[in-house]
Structures are given as structure tokens and as C-alpha cells.
Amino acid sequence: MSFQQGLSGLNASSKALDTIGNNIANSGTVGFKNSTTVFADVFAASLVGAGAAPIGLGAKVATVAQQFTQGNISSTNNPLDLAINGGGFYELTNANGDILYSRNGQFQLDKNGYIVNAEGLRLMGYAADGNGIITPPTTSLRLFDPASSSDAAPQATGTSTAATGVEANINLDSREDEPDNAFDPTDTSPAADTYNNSRAVTVYDSLGNSHIYSLYFVKTATTNEWEVYATVSNPAGAAVDVTALGLVDTLTFDTDGTLPSTYTPPTVTISDTDLGYAGGVDPLSFPMDFSGSTQYGASFTVNSLTQDGFTSGKLAGFSIGDDGVILGRYTNGQSKSLGQVVLANFRNPQGLQPLGNNVWMATSMSGPVMEGTPGSSGQHGPIQSAALEDSNVDLTKELVDMITQQRAYQANAQTIKTQDSILQTLVNLR
Residues 372, 88: contact at Cβ < 8 Å? Predict the structure, then answer.
């Protein structure tokens, strides 16, 4: 008579209770994935077969299977808290260069500007160059380098990718008369009458210094014709020397009050001396575009007056989009991509080896890693910033399973007790 079946049942139920206890203990662990105990029956092997009515030798634990179902997503106040809404794992690297995987999105910045988790593992993704262009391969994501400047470089007016320069959309009043006196921007007295209207816009040189670029509009004796003059101011702190740059454009409107289709914006060039930094900055050169401007019988109006330059700026904050792109915001009003989070997935996630501390390691059973950007496919879900994925443990189910396994344990103990009683009866035979 054998106690093997009852003993195997006790061991199997004990393992199942251990699994349930571990699930319950991690019900508050961010990104934790619960496990289930999978059982298998046991039969004795025989050279001549198992027979017509084999009796098994009990049960065994076949495996402890992880369940990679989605956990609930909770909001937080930390922009570096990330939750994956769908498939995928964060790629992390340790000091030895080993690649590990996690669903726990509790990240922070270390003293060197890297995005790390609580154990100091660095989050991996695609880095961005100085122009904000994101390119592979994967590397440790870094928002700033304390050994170098984190300032965003300035951009001189007219040097953007589109080279739009200064763009003005205005309406010049067709009822205006020609001024009585020759153009003189320095004479601002009420009786001067040297120009009809003026407006100013801030432009930037190659060092990010700002300059006031003033435009003056002068009606001429020619029908529907206006002359545009410009001046630029020297830098603040220096003796103000308003320099007349002269005539920069002549606008001749059609009889319907619009510019002709052949209108071509002129290119304005301002020397480093006129900018107040002789030999210290590059000369400014940009198009002065009045496309879309009109001459109607209405008051002088500036619909828009823009330019494409900006000064330098410091990193003031950042945000992470659902595609994993980290967008930096600077004090000069500009924004630039700093990198992009990359997700990994596997053909068989259950084949991953859990290492503790909310990380897994790839194995031959998990299959090769498949990288992708968040939201790019069904295997790589979008990312939600300022949010965390809760544990997927269902406490109600775990408590019910605990009761079930407890009853199974008691039943297996009862079979051993019964076997012992029968064996005692045989021993007592005389």
C-alpha cells in the first residue's frame, strides 16, 4: 500500500498555495504579473505498457505560468511615471550592459541625467541629436549631461530650415496721403510727418542677441505704391544707435488692393556693425516677405508679424507622448525631441525568466526580442505618461483559489490518514 498519491497531492497543493501567497503579497507591486500553478498527473513507466486500467502515482507541478494580462492604469503626478497600455516591456540595462525587461514604469532621473528605475537600471530607447532628430540604435536615454551645457542653441533670424525670415501680413490704408517730409525715423515729433505707419519685430543674431527691427511704411506719389524702410537697434546696455538701413522694399498693389502674383520678397542683409557686435556675430540675412498684404480703404492693420529666430534657452520641463517621444520644453519658448522610449516583446512571454525587482530576462524559451516604438503595432502598446500600471492580481479570485487549494490539501491529508488506518488494520491481523 502506497502513500505516494496523497503525498504528491499535498506537495502540489502546497506549491499552489505558495503561488497564491506570492500573488497576494504583490497585489500592490506596480507592473507585477500574477502566476498560476499548472498541475500534471504522474504514471509509472513500464516496458510492457501501462496496462488496461493503470492507476496513477499522483500529481506534480508541471510549471508556474505567468499571466501577462493588462493591469489597471492609475494616474500620478510624475511625468516620468509610464504605463504601457497593451503589449510590450521596457528595455533596461545594468552596469554590466545586460538587457533586462520590465513592466514597472516608475522612473526617475539620476545625477547624470539618465532615466533610471529604483534599482538604478537605465531605461533604453532611441536618442536624439542636437536638432531633435531621433535615430536608432537603442541606447540609454539621457535628458541632460551635467558635464556640458543643456541650453538649446539660438537660431538667427532667417536660418530656420524653411528660411522664412520676417513675414508680415498687413493692410495699408489706401486713403492715406504722401507724407510732407522726407523719411526720417529719428524725428518722432507730432508735426514731423515723415512716414505713415510703423511696426517693430524682435529679430535674433547668431549668438541669440535680440534686436528691434522696425518697419516704416511711406505712401508715395505713385498710385497704389508704398515704400518700406527699416532700422535696427543696437544691443541693450550699449549706446543706442538707431541705424537707418534704407529702403528695403517697394510695394505696388493692383487695383483690387492685393499684391501681384509676381511679387518676390526681397532679402535683407544687416551687417555685424549695424547689429552692434562688429566682428562678434554673423551678418543677418533673411527674406522680408509681405505676401498676403493688402491695400484696402480701411485703417492700417497688422494681421501678423512673425520671424523664425530665437535666443538660447534652458530646459524647463519635458513631456512624454503616447508614442514614447520625450519632448523637451525650453525657456525660449521652443521645444525639441530628446529621445524616444522603445518597447520589446516576445513570441512567448511566459518563457521569460523572472529575476525579482520587477524585471525579467530573455531565455531560449521566450524567443528573440522584437523591438518597436510604443503604439506602432498590436505587440507594442502606447505609453501613458504620469500613470502607472497596477498589479494584475485579482484579490477576490486569489482568495477563492486559496480556499480551493486548502480544501484540496485537507482532502489529500485525509487520503494519507485513511491509508494509515488501513495499514494499521493489516498490522494488527493475527
Answer: yes
Q: For 205-260, where are the E strands, in sequence order?
A: 210-219, 225-232, 243-252
Phi and psi of 153, rounded to 5°? -65, 150
CB 293 within 8 A of CB 168: yes
- 61: Cβ–Cβ under 8 A, 6 or more apart, which residues? 11, 12, 15, 16, 37, 38, 39, 40
Q: What is the DSSP string of 76-112?
A: -S-TTBEEESSS-EEEEE-TT--EEEES--B-EE-TT
Q: What is the largest CA-CA distance in the chain?
A: 142
Q: Which residues make Cβ contacts (< 8 Å) with residue 191, sequence separation at least 6?
A: none
Nearest Cα residue to 110 out of 96, 121, 102: 121
At what angle are helices 4-25 and 395-427 packed, to 10 degrees?
Answer: 160
Which residue in this structure is represented by grid cell 521566450? 366
The SS3 call for residue 265 is: coil
Q: What is the DSSP letter of 27?
A: T
Element (H, E) at 353: strand 353-356
CB 123 within 8 A of CB 115: yes
For residue 120, give the C-alpha cell.
538604478
* Average pLDDT of adjacent 10-residue blocks, the chain of 430 residues: 79 92 94 92 66 74 91 94 95 94 95 94 93 91 80 90 95 93 80 88 93 93 94 68 73 96 94 88 95 95 95 90 94 91 95 93 93 91 95 94 92 86 82
Q: What are the strands, taking DSSP E only, across 129-232? A: 134-140, 166-171, 197-204, 210-219, 225-232
Quote the CA–CA distance of 346 and 22 in Å, as a whole number. Answer: 24
Q: Alpha helices of 157-213 — where are they, by DSSP H?
A: none
HEC states along 381-408?
A: CCEEECEEECCCCCHHHHHHHHHHHHHH
Q: If you count them, how many residues does the chain have?
A: 430
Exposure b/e, 128-138, CB count within 10 A at least 16 = b? beeebebeeeb
> How far is Cα 345 from Cα 343, in angstroms, rounded to an integer?
7
Pairing, β 210-219 against β 122-128:
unpaired
Work out the burial of residue 395: count CB atoms within 10 Å of its CB; fewer than 13 is exposed, 13-18 middle, 19 or more buried. exposed
Q: Would you state the pLDDT for residue 378?
A: 83
Long-range contacts of 417-425 (CB under 8 A, 24+ apart): 419/1, 419/2, 419/3, 419/6, 420/3, 422/1, 423/1
